[in-house]
Structures are given as C-alpha cells and as structure tokens.
Amino acid sequence: MIHKKSTQDLVSERPKPEELAKLPRTPITVIADNIRSLDNVGLLFRLCELARVEKLYLTGYTGYPKTGDDSRPKQIIERHQKRIEKTAVYAIPHQPWEYVENPVPLVKKLKEQGNQIIALEQTDKSLAYNLGTYNLPAVLLLGHERQGVRQELLDLADTVIDIPILGLGNSHNVATACGIVLYKILETTKGI
Question: FRET label pair with 95: which of 18, 128, 140, 182, CA 20 to 30 Å apart?
C-alpha cells in the first residue's frame, strides 16, 4: 500500500529556515512585469521560493508586499499584503525580492552580466519551451496576463519561448506558465 505523506511528514523533511538561508540559490532571476492579479503575485513568490530562485523582481504596476519605506496609501499596502500572502502562504520572508518600476534598465544590466534572457511569450518566433536550450545564470521574463511581455523587453531577449496550447484558451495562467518553465530550466540545467 502507498503511504500518503502528511503535512507533518512533509514539514519534517524540509530544512529549518535558518538552515535554508545558508543553502545556495538557483542562479535564475524572475522578472514579473505589469502583473494585474495579486493572487498571481503570491503564487510567483511561492513558485520562486520552492525553486530557490535567486531573486524575484516585481516591476511596472505589479502589486507588491509591504516594504520598509513604503509610500503607498495604507489601504493599498494592506490590501496588497493580504492578497499576496494568501497565495504565497509562507514564501514572502524566504524569497529575495525587490520592486523596480522600470524593468528595462534592470534587464539590460543582467544581460551585460552574462545572464541568458528568456522571454515567455507567444510570438511568431517563439520556440516551444521544451525545445529551448537554457543556460545559467538566466532571467525569466513574465508579462501582463493579457498583453504579455512588453516589446522593449522582448527586444532584449536571447530566446523567446511559449507553452503549446492544445485547448480552446489562448494561454496559460502566468503563474502556472512560470512554474512549468522554471522546472524545465531546472531539469535541463540541474538535472532534477
């Protein structure tokens, strides 16, 4: 008979937060630009923490958790914090992140530092994600749920990938798509 692991079993297998902080991170940066849904932002925190992503950048008008010098109106801070925490569960304090309004200079800098820039977008030049060649360090660019990755970022990409659509919908949810691609990158670069 197969034994299903309990929450207690799963928790006992994880390192303690102080041990986890000492473990190496995966040299992948995720940049989430103009993400509308705070639920998606929370899920991105959770996915990035689970994959040990080096850093998550929230850019454009993407909502973000409370910061030390937060100048947003109190009700916005509280709303964003509550909604993001709901889907992030435990991840926010354990995932390095930063808010940057304009991602273009950031992506240029990361590219100059030798990062492979990977845009997740449906274009006439996109390659199916499972056929891509991935190298670390890498940057994964995610865009607006409907409008996608902005053109200025696409123009900086070394490769543009998409996830094949087999049903009637036009695309996958941005957080779902991020999870699929993150683990493909981990599979091909780290052999997990």
Answer: 128
In tens digits, the chain (192 residues) has pLDDT values of 998 999 898 888 888 888 888 889 999 999 999 999 999 999 999 999 999 999 999 999 999 999 999 999 999 999 999 999 999 998 999 999 999 999 999 999 999 999 999 999 999 999 999 999 999 999 999 999 899 999 999 999 999 999 999 998 888 899 999 999 999 999 999 877
DSSP H/E element including 38: helix 38-50
